[in-house]
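Blinded run. Sample ID left blank on purpose so nobody reads anything into the name before looking at the predicted structure. Input follows.
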Amino acid sequence: MEETQLIDLKNEDNRTAEVTIIDDDEPGVIAFQAPKEGSPTRLPPVTASEKAGHAKIRVGRFNGANGEVHVDCKFIDGSAVNGKHYKASNHPITFHNTEVEKFLEVELLHTGLEDGVEFTVQLENVRSDHKERQPSLGHHTKQIVHVVADADEKKHMDDIHAYLQANDGSGFAVGSQGWAHQFQEALDPGDSMVLHIITLPWKLIFATVAPTSYAGGWLCFFQALIYIGVVTAFIGDLAALMGCCLGLKDVVTAITFVALGTSLPDAFASKAATINDDSADAAVGNVTGSNAVNVFLGLGLPWSIAAIYWGFGLYSDDHEEAWLKTYGGKYAVAGDGTIVGRGGTKYPPAVATATPAPTRMMDVRGKLGPDGGRNIGFGETEPIGFIVPAGSLGLSVAVFTICALTTIAVLYYRRVTIGAELGGPKASAKRHAALLVGLWFVYVVASILSTEGMI
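Blinded prediction complete.
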């Protein structure tokens, strides 16, 4: 058994020290508190601030310290949920020979608590390799951990809430300052005068966007969409001009300069989301959501408009003429073999055919005919419609799909091995970042080679 003695220290303060003599012949009793007379039946909770980032819980070994002892720690949710408010997994802890205390550190997740939450740590299944004497669990095998909001932060938020209640929140509404304030911010040079001069025209243009307090924010939303569309078209034209000056094809320009110019804002938005969020959900969701909008809205909307335009015959005569010259050809072959040009010119009869004459040139197209024109009178006819040549799209989509699946596999691997999609050990983070950048180069190179007909 452990013995405790009080020793008077002969000094000017006449202090008393408590000395505990440990019985090192017994394996001991494992508990959160020593089994003393008069000790409470229920331990007071361990209180930890959410802002501290972790809760520290002491596990003691009493009435002996002989040999190696193992005990399982189990985490039980209360109002705090594992994975949401704290992060822990059931695991054993080991007391080595003569070791009398261990500390559990539980990671606390920052969720902006307003009220406290709690969970319980329970000790169970104590064991030892000692053949003659076995350890036991003490009376106090459950410890409640109370997680509270940071006092200063909570007081600050309460003060803001009270002020908003008293002033209808008008002073804190984003965008409520009006156009004058937006132009003042646009003219503010900030930390870099060089960047200010370069971006000043753009800042002044975007300062004309309506403040979010107007029309419930909808005016700002739609005006911003229009501005984004104009800027995207501007970037596309600049990239096309650069590609033309460098002698690059439009496809190559699109997957390099245009793609970089339109995707860099997404990259910065994902970075900001990663810094400000506790998880990778916002960053990964931003990237996948952006690609979904590009594919389903960026391609789907204009293609749908074009399909309706051509499918319902809304095109003009000039567009019909251009379509026939491109896909329907300059020549029609009548049933008697006479070749009729677009201008009504008749050419010598070709080989007689039983194929009936086309009723309308605008309704059909087909195989190559004489003089390099399109024979729209022989079989496999199709009506006028919206046509987009596939080009090298097939290989490009295949390579993109492989790279995307590889990226998902990398994220899953990081989840299993590191416990997080982003961050982690620097060596691993740099290695995986280099791999993902390499996948982008693989896609670009493969698409360029396909466009040039090399693969």
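Unblinding after everyone has recorded impressions. The first strand starts at residue 3 and ends at 8.
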